[in-house]
Amino acid sequence: TGRPPAGRFPCCRPPPRQLPPPPPARPPAGRHERAPRRAVQPGRARGGDVAGGQPRLLQDVGEGRLGQRQLDTLRQVLAELRTKGFYRLLMIHHPPAPGLATRLRALQDAAALKTILCEQQAEMVIYGHNHRREMTWLEEAGNKVPAIGVASGSMALHAHQPAEWNLYEISRQSGKWVTQVTIHQWKGPAEGFVPRDPFSLEN
Predict the structure, then answer these.
(1) CB of 189 within 8 A of CB of 177?
(2) CB–CB of 70/112 below 8 Å?
(3) What is the maximal distance between C-alpha atoms in the chain?
(4) DSSP symbols for 93-124
(5) DSSP string over 21-61
(6) Across-strand partners of 167?
(7) Which of 18, 64, 152, 196 is paired with 167 by a 20 to 30 Å CA distance?
(8) Within 13 Å of residue 168, how many CA atoms lie on the same side as its CB?
(9) Residue 35 has pLDDT above 70, yes or no
(10) 95-132, pLDDT tens digit by residue?
């Protein structure tokens, strides 16, 4: 068939003689560290997320690290919101405690994160990464924090666990926070996501 002319098809153009200049260097704040983001929700509930992604060249390696800067900021934010009477929900990709993922897929500083969450008595943690539904209680120093693992939102119906998403309804009742959790599971194109297995948490 022969090779098409280089100028006719973009995919066949010869590579440039020089590589483009690298992007500007980021401030030396630690690899993939940043301050936790805070999202204000209606009422007296606040949610925030922390980033733990860490790129690796090896396949099947999905570990992460928060870094001391994010951990220190998280402790400060949780303490501040606690004094103001807010419901505090933390969203993170990796499981928030040791033993919830294999070593090469775990959060390197999960133990430090668990200590902060229990110390500050966060109301809830939600995470992914494992692509399956999980419910774990983080326990330390006499405090317990619920951590809910969410399945992938795009898995096929016949995968090891079909796609799911969770609805969280937060209310204040008799001086306690009540979180109603409703799981919505994919049942195929005809039914879509179907609610199932609702449960409540109090703290």
Answers:
(1) no
(2) no
(3) 78
(4) SS-SSTTSS-GGGSBTTHHHHHHHHHHTT-SE
(5) PPPPPPPSS-TT--PPEEEE-STTEEEEEE--B---SSTT-
(6) 182
(7) 64
(8) 22
(9) no
(10) 888 877 767 677 888 899 999 999 999 999 999 877 78
Residue 177 binned pLDDT confidence (cut-offs 50, 70, 90): very high
HSE-up of 190 (CA within 13 Å, CB side)? 0
153 vs 160: CA distance, rounded Å = 13
3-state helix, strand and coil shares in percent for the chain, rounded to the nearest 5: 15, 35, 50
Pairing of strands 87-92, 124-127: parallel
User: Using CB atoms within 10 A of its CB, is residue 189 exposed (0-12), middle (13-18) or buried (19+)?
Assistant: exposed
Question: What number of CA atoms fall less than 13 Å from residue 2's CA on the CB side?
Answer: 3
Kindly state the helix (H) or strand (E) to which residue 144 belongs, with its residue range.
strand 143-149
Position 153 pLDDT exceeds 60: yes
| Of 72, 62, 65, nearest in space to 36 by CA | 72
| Rounded (5°) CA angle 193-149-104 | 125
Instruction: Report pLDDT for 110.
Output: 87
DSSP label at residue 14: P
pLDDT on residue 25: 46
Mean pLDDT of the chain: 76
Residue located via tokens 């966060």:
122
Q: Which two tokens stand for residue 19?
A: 């590589």
